[in-house]
Amino acid sequence: MLAKRIIPCLDVRDGKTVKGVNFVNIREVGDAVELGAEYARQGADELVFLDITASHEGRKTFVELVKRIAHVLNIPFTVGGGISELKDIEALLSAGADKVSINSAAIRNPELIDQMALNFGSQFVVVAIDAKEVDGHWTAYVNGGRIPTDKELFSWAREAQDRGAGEILFTSMNHDGTKNGFACEALARMSESLSIPVIASGGAGNMEHYAEVFAKGKADAGLAASIFHFKEITVPQLKEYLHQKGIPVRL
Q1: Cα(36)–Cα(17) distance, rounded to whole angstroms?
Q2: Which of 51, 130, 176, 220 is labelled catalytic?
Q3: Which neighbouring-strand residues pair with 49?
Q4: Which one of 3.30.559.10, 3.20.20.70, 3.30.1330.10, 3.30.750.80 gives the CATH number of domain 5-244?
């Protein structure tokens, strides 16, 4: 079995790392460059940087900030936010990103996934899906969780895979920032229906939640922000806990 990945996430707004609950009530938590360097030192498997208001504000991702973060990292670095065309992706890869995550742009222009895979390779393409569950139905949202779409979570994830996505980053808006655990049932259903890795996001509150998302949720990686930013647990503590539970991780 492949090692499960632990991925801290930097949600960035106006150049500052922030965190909210259910995509609202945003507050600042620290300097993105310093946090990125610290997570690399701690042994995080990857780092994700999401410019959470770029799409909503109709602007591009902070390329200069991406360069500064990439400079202090020795782990894979995924960047997303405000991407709408191939030249945006070229700029981010040139700035030091190892993978590029698209969300709103992929829903508005699904062929962008095909173009990215064709031009850069599927291994560079992460399709992020922010979805909310109401009465058993999961709907994908755009613009940082502000606008619902006609895309159903599971069918959209399969389409993204078929178009060339190398990974799916699924954030449950119902669970985001609540620290009550991941959306394990939905994650398991997605993981079983896809042949590409699924990154779980939304709801991490303790180490048990990570064990659950890998065992019950069948996720390939677990992404979190608050628990790492506020030092509730560290990456080494989490990895040692998972190792003791028999879950394969890179120590």
Answers
A1: 10
A2: 130
A3: 10, 79
A4: 3.20.20.70
Q: State residue 104 phi and psi, 5-degree precision.
A: -60, -45
Residue 175 confidence class, pLDDT cut points 50, 70, 90:
very high
Q: How confident is the model at residue 4 (pLDDT cuts 50, 70, 90)?
A: very high
Dist CA 137 CA 243 (whole Å) = 35
* Residue 186 in tokens: 């939905």
130 a catalytic residue: yes
**At 90, phi and psi to the nearest 5?**
-60, -40
The active-site residue out of 11, 51, 88, 176 is 11
pTM of the model: 0.92
Is 220 an active-site residue?
no
| Confidence at 23, pLDDT banded by 50, 70, 90 | very low
Q: What percent of the chain has pLDDT over 90?
A: 77
Nearest-angstrom CA–CA distance, 183 and 202: 8
Determine the number of helices (DSSP H) and then strands (DSSP E) in the chain: 11, 12
**Residues 6+ away with beta carbon under 8 Å from 249:** 3, 4, 6, 239, 242, 243
Give me the mean pLDDT over the 103-114 stretch.
96
Name residues whose C-beta falls within 8 Å of residue 89's C-beta, 6 or more positions apart in sequence: 83, 100, 116, 119, 120, 124
3-state secondary structure of 115: helix
Give burial (CB, 10 Å; 0-12/13-18/19+) of 204: buried
